[in-house]
């Protein structure tokens, strides 16, 4: 699920401290790349490669150069606008040259003024745009914070995801979201949160919709969590082979990010909440460099090799 930012949205961000100089001109224009650009030699009329539909930022040096050099205004402003920026932002609360404002209005490019220093504006707007434009998707499941590990519970409807999550909440773990999980990629990680007004509500068959935050307190919920383990609940099928050793790690790809994953068969008598707690603890050990299954395998191999060596040293007549 891709997204885009309108200049109007950027204008509405209070932390950017921006105001429009050109009225409502071009506020529907969109930004699709979370990177700003500075004009550089384009101010001199040099046809430097500027990318279209990006936020073009002018700092104090650029504004002073335009004001003090009439040729720069005559050559540089048309060169800037020829790149078709999404908008032009002047930082430090400086007043943009009138020629820039007039030319921008004619082309429908909004001019904004931010009270922030240039470096601060670039840092804040780049971080916000990177998060806002990151690839995202929605998944049906439950996202929990179990022992600090973000655990995404998946499985077909009615298999018991919400009931298992409620059991985990009762044990002191934290609910992030139930039913619809809005997932966004951030660098090499994926982060999940609840979708819309669903918030920290859960649907429990037989009880209806409950508010976990109201029932168990604010310590039982959190708004977002990095997804570090996928647990798929599957119906137990007689005759199907399930992983009993755990030597090989399994991964699911979410937004092209590999996430460690396990499959838990569901049948009467299995305590899924306990199993998920153990899975989270095991994942914590792996993150710390300890792989229990492989360590046991290596220990077994060493014991077998030691036994073989001891047997080889025994004289044949002693064996007889």
List keywords for this structure.
320 residues, alpha/beta, Udp-n-acetylmuramoylalanyl-d-glutamate--2,6- Diaminopimelate Ligase, Chain: A, domain 1, Rossmann fold, 2 domains, five-stranded mixed β-sheet, 10 helices, 17 strands
Strand tally, please? 17
Strand order of the largest sheet: 14-11-10-8-9-15-17-16
Largest sheet: 8 strands, mixed
Count of alpha and pi helical runs: 10
Please mark out the parts with pLDDT under 50 across 5 or more consecutive residues, or reply none.
none
What structural class do the secondary elements suggest?
Answer: alpha/beta
CATH class of the largest domain: Alpha Beta
Arithmetic mean of pLDDT: 89
Quaternary assembly:
single chain
TL;DR?
By secondary structure, the protein is of the alpha/beta class. It contains 10 helices and 17 strands. Helix 3 packs parallel to helix 4 (98-107) and helix 6 crosses helix 8.
Notes on the protein architecture:
It is a single chain. This protein folds into two domains: 5-132, 3-Layer(aba) Sandwich (Udp-n-acetylmuramoylalanyl-d-glutamate--2,6- Diaminopimelate Ligase, Chain: A, domain 1); 136-289, Rossmann fold. Helices cover 34% and strands 28% of the residues. The chain has helices at 7-12, 60-68, 70-82, 98-107, 118-132, 161-170, 212-216, 272-287, 292-312, 316-319; strands spanning 5-6, 18-20, 30-31, 36-37, 55-58, 87-90, 111-114, 136-146, 149-154, 174-186, 189-194, 201-204, 208-211, 224-226, 229-235, 250-254, 257-266. The strands form four sheets. An eight-stranded mixed sheet has the order 14-11-10-8-9-15-17-16. The longest helix is centred in the C-terminal third of the chain and has 21 residues, at 292-312.
């Amino acid at each position: 699920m891709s997204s885009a930012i309108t200049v109007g949205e950027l204008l509405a961000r209070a932390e950017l401290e921006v105001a429009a100089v050109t009225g409502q001109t071009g506020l529907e224009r969109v930004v699709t790349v979370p990177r700003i650009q500075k004009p550089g030699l384009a101010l001199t009329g040099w046809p430097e490669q500027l990318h279209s539909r990006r936020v073009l930022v002018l700092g104090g040096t650029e504004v002073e150069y335009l004001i003090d050099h009439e040729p720069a205004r005559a050559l540089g402003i048309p060169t800037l606008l020829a790149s078709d920026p999404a908008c032009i932002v002047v930082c430090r609360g400086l007043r943009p040259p009138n020629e820039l404002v007039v030319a921008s209005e004619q082309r429908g490019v909004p001019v904004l003024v931010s009270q922030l220093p240039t470096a601060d504006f670039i840092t804040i707007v780049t971080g916000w745009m990177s998060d806002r434009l990151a690839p995202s998707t929605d998944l049906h499941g439950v996202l929990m914070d179990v022992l600090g590990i973000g655990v995404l519970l998946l499985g077909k409807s009615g298999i018991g995801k919400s009931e298992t999550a409620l059991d985990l909440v009762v044990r002191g773990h934290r609910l992030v979201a139930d039913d619809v999980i809005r997932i966004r990629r951030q660098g090499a990680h994926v982060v999940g949160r609840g979708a819309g007004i669903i918030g920290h509500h859960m649907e429990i068959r037989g009880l209806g919709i409950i508010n976990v935050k109201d029932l168990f307190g604010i310590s039982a919920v959190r708004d977002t969590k990095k997804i570090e383990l996928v647990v798929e609940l599957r119906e137990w099928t007689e005759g199907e082979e399930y992983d009993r050793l755990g030597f090989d790690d399994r991964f699911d790809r979410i937004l092209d990010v590999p996430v460690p994953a396990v499959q838990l068969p569901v049948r009467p008598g299995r305590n899924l909440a306990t199993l998920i707690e153990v899975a989270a603890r095991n994942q914590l050990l792996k993150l710390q460099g300890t792989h229990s299954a492989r360590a046991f395998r290596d220990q077994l191999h060493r014991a077998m090799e030691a036994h073989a060596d001891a047997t080889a040293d025994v004289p044949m007549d002693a064996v007889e």
